[in-house]
Every structure is written in structure tokens, then in C-alpha cells.
Automatic annotation (TrEMBL):
UniProt GO molecular function: carbohydrate derivative binding; glutamine-fructose-6-phosphate transaminase (isomerizing) activity
Lineage, highest ranks first: Archaea, Methanobacteriati, Methanobacteriota, Stenosarchaea group, Halobacteria
Name this protein carries in UniProt: Glutamine--fructose-6-phosphate aminotransferase [isomerizing]
Record's keyword annotation contains Cytoplasm: yes
Main localization category: cytoplasm
Functional summary from the UniProt entry: Catalyzes the first step in hexosamine metabolism, converting fructose-6P into glucosamine-6P using glutamine as a nitrogen source.
Whole-protein residues included: 238 to 599 of 599
Amino acid sequence: GKAGHDHYMHKEIHEQPNALRQAISGRIDELTGNASLDIDLDERYLQAVDEIHIVACGTSYHAGLYAKELLEPLVDLTVRVDLASEYEVYDGFDSRRTLVVAVTQSGETADTLSAIRRAKAPGMTTLAVTNTVGSTITREVDDSLFIKAGPEIGVAATKTFVSQVTALALFTIYLGRLRGTISAGDGADILENIRRLPNAVQSILDAEPNIKRLAKQYVDSDAFFFIGRGLAYPVALESALKLKEISYAHAEGFAAGELKHGPLALVTKNTPVLAFLSESASPDETFNNVKEVESRGAPVIGLSTSDGTESFCKHTIDIPSLGRLEPLVANVALQLFAYHVANEMGRPIDKPRNLAKSVTVE
Ligand code: F6R
């Protein structure tokens, strides 16, 4: 049942600290600065891989975009992230040195399954990052990495997003240690942030009354825009998807630097802009974009690790310092924001119109 919550989505947002503890449990080896993952792929193959293709849909695609931002600077690889329905295999890369990673909560998404089948044709090795033991995808790929989030019932993915990114962060450390691009010390530093993630998420959940108040204040807006850079860009996309699917409001996520290339024309005093200003997401550059929208009268809600820049925003939501995982924590604040906007509008949050939990048609 819903255990006292009005909706499964609300329950699942609040389950995130525990879901994360499960995802991490037994997978951190502090001594060697490594992640211990039960992955059976050949280690010599993983050392020789020079390209990763991540395929996924919706929220899982956003987790894939986040993973690219972790993998590329830390592991010596090219990472391409494709919407599963758009994934096509051309010549021009070495299929024996390419790993295809499918990210899928359900393990049943038809678009993702068919992308994996296209990858297997020329002989690429495949890995699924999934929540569902025994799902169709686990039977089709070479190996699976389970995110261990527990069952998710609300149509909107919440706890599985944070768990997917965490599993992919652990995978990044594992690959980097294996290939010698991440030192034991750097591995230990990232693992330390992963270990702190459940409590960091809890601190956001504790700020729910503040976030709910903002949601009520802006529920009648014409549209909602989310802006971020680097690691926060996929989170901006994810936050907009969450809000639009459960509230039916117009919501869009933009790379902060792209605003001036068109979307700025949409900005008015009735379009709140939610801006990711955390330390790990180039806050100074994004702050210039905040000024652009404020000068058009838009109210700005800044998500920040409180370094001072946020004092120029109309409202702020504090995010704990957590290195590369800060935007992931900020995402939880915007799950709550989306939830409370939709709840204020009286929407059927766990079953939005036209949507299904697992999409088994292409
Ligand atoms: C959004 C949402 C969907 C799914 C997408 C992929 O909240 O839930 O966008 O993320 O349908 O589903 P999986 O991860 O099961 O492949």
C-alpha cells in the first residue's frame, strides 16, 4: 500500500534514501577505492573498449546523459547516448571494442529491447542497467547490473532515476580503476560522495515544506523552465519531464547557455525559471543566464550549494555539497516541486492520462 502517503509517487520519492542504501550496499570497497559490482563481462575486453553507446528512453535516457558526464572525464572513452528509438548502427566504429549499455527500469521497454537487438546484430557486447530481475532485457543482454531500487508503482519514475545514476557512478569507478584512469585516492573520494548520498537526499526531503510553498505560489504559471549546465543539464531535462507528465503544465529543460539562442523569447513574468547553481554545475556562467531571465521579469528559483550567487535569486533551495552528485540531489527537490504542483492542480498523479508504466510498443 501507500503507507500513509496520498500517492505512490510521494511514497517513492521518500523511499530514495533507503533505495540508495540498497543500491550501494556491499558495493563500496574503501580500501582499494573501488566499486565491487557483480559484473561478469571479461575484464580484458572492458580494458580494450574504446566506445560506449548508452540507449534508453525517457527518464532512463536522462540517467544515461548524466552517466556520460561522469564517464567521459573519468574513463578514457567516447560515450554516445541515444534515445533507444533513434539508435542506429552504422559503420565507422569497431563493434568488438564497443559496449552497448541499455538503461531501463522495467527491462520491458520495447524501444530499448529493439535497440539492443540492433546492437547485437554486428556482435556488440551488451549490458543492461535495470531494476527488474528476470525481465526480458536481462535474458537478451550479455550481463546485467541491478539498481536494487525496489518496486516502483507510480508511473513517473523517481527513486529509480537516482538509483540508475548511482549504479552508473559505481560502474564509472569500476571501469576507471580497471583501466587505470582513476587512482585509488580519486576512487575513494567519489565513493565517499556516493556513501553520503542517502543522507544528502534526506536533507532535501526534510526541506519539503519550503518546496511545497513554492509549488503553491507558482502553480498558476504559464510555463516552467529548468536550466542547467554540465551534469545539471540532464537534470533540467528530467525535471521538466517530471513536471509535464504529472501536471500537464508546459515545462521545458534547457542547457543554460542555449536560452539566448531562442527559448528566451518564451520568458515572461509568468514563467518561473528553476536554475541549477550548484558548485559542480558551473554556477557563475549559469548566473549570467539567471540575470537574463530576471531582467525579463521571470521569478527565479535557484538550487544552490550556497556560495553567495543564489542571493540574487528570488527564491533558493539549498543543496548539500556533494561534488559530481550535487545535481542528482537537486533533482529530488524538483521531484517534490513537480509533485506539489500536480497535487495542487488535483491531477491523478500515479496514473497520468495517456501514459503507462511500462511501454511495450514501439
Ligand atoms: C518518466 C518515465 C518514462 C520512463 C520510460 C523508460 O517518468 O517513467 O519516461 O522512464 O518509459 O522506461 P524504462 O526505464 O522502464 O525503460
